[in-house]
Prior knowledge:
The complex is a heterodimer of chains A (289) and B (345). By secondary structure, chain A is mostly helical. Chain A contains ten helices and no strands. Chain A folds into two domains: 11-135; 139-289, no CATH class. Helices cover 72% and strands 0% of the residues of chain A. In chain A, helix 4 (85-106) runs antiparallel to helix 5 (114-129), helix 5 (114-129) crosses helix 6 (145-173) and helix 6 (145-173) runs antiparallel to helix 9. Chain A is globular, with a radius of gyration of 20 Å. The two termini of chain A are 26 Å apart. Chain B is α+β, with helices and mostly antiparallel strands and 345 residues long. Chain B has two domains: 2-88 and 291-316, no CATH class; 93-289, no CATH class. Chain B is 29% helix and 35% strand. Chain B has seven helices and 15 strands. In chain B, strands 1, 2, 6, 7, 8, 14 and 15 form a seven-stranded antiparallel β-sheet that branches. In chain B, strands 5-4-3-11 form a four-stranded antiparallel β-sheet, with no helix packed on it. A four-stranded antiparallel β-sheet of chain B has the order 9-10-12-13, with no helix packed on it. In chain B, strand 9 (212-215) and strand 10 form a beta hairpin. The interface between A and B is large, with 60 and 63 residues.
Amino acid sequence: MMNEMSEATVFTELPWLYTGLVAYALATLSAFYGLVRTRGGDAGAAVNRSHESLVLALLTGGVILLTASLAERWLRLGHGPFVNLFELLISQLFSLGLIYAVAYWRLPVLRPTAVVVLPMLWVLGTWVLLLEPSDSHYPPTYYNEWLWAHVGFGKFFLAFCLIGSGLAGVILLRRIPRVAPFFRHLPPDKVLDHMAWRFMLLALIFDSLMLIAGAVWAQDAWGRYWAWDALETSSFLNWLFLGAALHARLSYRIPIHVGALAIIGIFVFAFLTYFGTPFYSEAAHKGVI
Amino acid sequence: MTALLRRLSSTRFTLLGMALLAVGAALSYDNPVDTPVWALVAPMALLAVNLLAAVMSNARINRRPGLLIFHLSLLGIVILAAIGRLTHMEAHIEMVEGSTFDPAELMNVRKGPWHRGELEKVVFVQGPFTVDYGPGMMRGPTRSHVLVPDGQGGWERRVVGDDTPLVLEGYRFYTTFNKGFAAVLTWIPETGEPVTGTIHMPSYPLFDFRQANRWTPPGGEEVKFWLQLETGLKADQAWTLDPSKAHGILVLRSGEQREELLPGQATALPGGVLRYEGLSSWMGYKLFYDPTLQWLFLTAVIGVLGLAAYFWNKFATHPWPQAGEVSRKGAEPELETAPWGGGKL
């Protein structure tokens, strides 16, 4: 019975997942190729951007393949990717890829950040490859529409943090003399910093919505809207750090590279909240399902 | 006065309050008993004073409606959450099938000093329940049937469970994983009136092999009970816990005496006769009462909408830079330093 289950897993969602990850990997390589090709251009200067279409096509292809992987798993198990780490990672690879692809398409000035953002996605990609694609049991408290709102808002929050981190990453990379020439054609740090913080403002809105939807879901599911479990505490701290960073950025002359470090710090904290806390503590959502 | 307000509204105070709140939140993780409530209340109070001072003195907030709404909603959430804690009530109860809710049977009751709910008006009768399980004893949906007054002298049937609580007079009753079987017993003392009641066995199927309890009849000796259940449980297959289809033999021990009773059978014990009337079931509920829930939700949503509206306007007047349009020169005017020293977004 277990062997049959394993084979079913291998022959349904995994091929889509693997090809999706290959597409992401090729998109990453194309982004680096483009960066090397445009080395040395001045800020705002006309540069050859033909590789960007390829990056976008590969990224979109990866998103479509991951959508197929999620759909296969969904049909096979009868529930969405909300429970174990394996399916949470695929789901995030899909949503982060999708939101970044839309941003990449609509805001061309963001495109050089692909060399920072796509490797971050590959951290998730490598992680998912190391996990057993085990089936999950869907808890009865997950049949609640607020779960969708909670997860959906959370995906936007993390994606905007990721894009902000991509911009912050470029700012920091430009401080390394050997690397700086690769990003010289980009707008000045001030512009990148300005954009990065705009994404963090959007992240704050979606983080707030995620917390509200999560509280409503928790009230329905467990009879309390807030209980300081590991995930709730970590999420609240994340919201607080984001709010504090925005207050500091708007009120003081914070050096741009310090602001960039703060953005990356917030993203790392959000990453650990998403993928670390629920599996670190049995008392988190995992423990009360 | 103005100077004091300006000092109190300082962003330094905001950041200090946030840092202290972060410490308070970290200390509150998992609700340890040794963390005083002040760990959260003090920084929240500091932030509230800071915010009120900022609203009164700072044009950056009070002349921007969206931002003002967001910050006031944060204040509203803190106040509502405080009112919620002062008026809340939480408890647990085990309801036997066929029994009517009785507030006197509540366990682990915790309530705020201002709790003024009308618990005595809550009326419902527990009916049967079922719980689905997947292979490997993975718990699925719970369906608990209850009867509530329909307001016209009759009863209305409702099915609650998991994320669908029974809400009566503002009190929310949530089914829990805690549910099981009960033996209905009648104690017929040598002198006095017979008394009928239930002995609740531990949660099922969590304690499948420990369906035991003990009780001392009035004027008698302690009796140990063990319920031999037949529920059709198959751990490796999908299964539904349906107490109406279960059977149970009640094994009892009193001193050296051991008896196995089927429903309807009785045995003589020191001090009287004990009759096993039959098998019943109980459902464990968590009770939750907080009159601020809807207001909290509304306040939070209005706050986020205010923030979103503020940034929508902001982004509309200062669009995102496009590739090729941005040059070192061209970018500067939009990114000029804000008058208060920080950066505009």
